[in-house]
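Sorry, explain these tokens?

___
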Amino acid sequence: MTTATNKSNSSTTSSADTKAAQVEAPFTEKATEAAHHAVDALSSRAASAEHSVREGATNSAKTLSKKQAVAREKINEYSGKTRQLASENPLATAGIAFAAGMLVSALIRRNK
């Protein structure tokens, strides 16, 4: 007898679930539509942000390239001047190298 009652309750429950699903369908459709609009808006903003980041990276790369070229020119200029000074004054160059070596070795000994 309990099985018959359970069967009739389960059939009532399944028809109630079907009716509930039909009632909830408009809400689900509205929620789905709202979610699609939100994703589309987010996608648009993400594309705009990506474009800005890429543009900024390109500009930074160009600026860095220019700065590197200027730095290379300065290094070449100063290294040429240093070589010229060293060849014109070999005794002063040796003295400066000796003093720098003494200073470095004193600093190393002091830190131990």
Summary: DSSP finds two helices and no strands in the chain. The CA atoms of residues 5 and 89 lie 113 Å apart. Helices lie at 2-88, 90-111. The first helix runs from residue 2 to 88.
